Each structure stands twice: as C-alpha cells, then as structure tokens.
Amino acid sequence: MIRNLLRSVPALVLALMSLLPTPASAAGGRHQAAGPDPVVFVHGWNSDGSTWETMAGRFRADGWPAGRLDQWTYDTTQSNATTAARLADEIQRVLDATGATKVDVITHSMGALSSRHYLKNLGGSAKVDAWVSLAGPNHGTETARWCGGAACAEMRPGSAFLNALNSGDETPGSPRYATWGSPCDLLITPASSVALTGALNSKTACLDHSGLRTDRAVYEAVKAHVR
Predict the structure, then answer these.
(1) Integer distance in angstroms from the first to the last C-alpha of the chain?
(2) pTM here?
C-alpha cells in the first residue's frame, strides 16, 4: 500500500502545481500585451503632443487604456528624416513598455512625412499595424514656401525629400494605410496632395486644417480603421 501511495505522489504534486498562479514575471508580459494596439500620435509643424487631447480623450472614453495612448512631442524644426529616427526610438519604447508587438500611428499634417520615412526606410513597417494621415502634405504643399527651416523646405512640392519618399511604392509593407483630407483645408494646397496610392483615401466635410484632429466624424472613421 505504501509503495502505491508513493507512486501517486508525483501526479498529485503536478496536479497541485497546476492550481498555483502563474509567476508574475511570465504573466506580466501577457497581461500587458492584452488589449488594443498602442496608438502613437505624431503632430505637425510648429505644434506638440497636446494638440491630440480631443482625439486621445475620445479613445480613452471608448476603452483605450491611457497607457496605450502616446501623445509624442518632437522638435519640428529638424529634418523629417531626423524626426523619423527619433520616432523609431519612441515606438520601440512604447512596445517595450506595453508588451505589444505593433502600434498604430495617427498623424496630423507634417507628422505624415516623418512617419512615412520611418515606415519606408527604418524598418517601421514591421512594427506598425495601421497608419493614419490627417491633412498630410504627402506630395507637398505650396504654403510651405512661406516658412523656413529644414522641415518646411522638405514639405515644398518637388523637394528632394518628397521625391525620395514618394518614389516606388507609396504604401510599403503590411501596414493598413489611410488618409483623410478636407476640401476646405487652406494649408494643404493642392488638396490632392493628401492621398496616397495604395491607401484608403477619404474626403471629409468642409473642415479647416486643425479640424481634422477634433471632428467627431473623422474620429469615428479613424477609430474604425485602427480597431
């Protein structure tokens, strides 16, 4: 009888171990990774991350954890290529912090350019699930001729930066690309600059340049795209 009891001990131990909680070090990563993709917001020229308060607040109200909404701020006077390298670091930081494997990137205006450079030239397409451009000067804007500095020069139609960015595939890799442009946006001229070949391209109601960040209908469409 004792011999039979001893034989049953290993099975009993295994059964009891299966009831114990998973170690925190293993469970933590799985717990953090659960949930929607983190969203990294990339603002436009002469702006900062606070301009996303309305849209980020709506995402929070609709169930996105605050820790997965990154209203990133960067120096808009530097080249968009430099910003793209900084964005690569920021996205990796967000992935490490959340345990996610990919992020969604939502951009406004000039933010489209640095993020596209990241996707095309810095391996970003492997780390981004959905990409959004609101009022992006993807093929340049004539109004950039009235401002100075590296970033503005790169936004001018026909710039070397834009020619390289738009050569070949405008929507490379596996991310789901989408753009929204307004017929009443006086800062992006021509309005056709926004659309990208291979993206889901949409026109909004008559909104001004900043209105694309705060309009409820645009938010709902963007949310459906990144969900």
Answers:
(1) 61
(2) 0.86
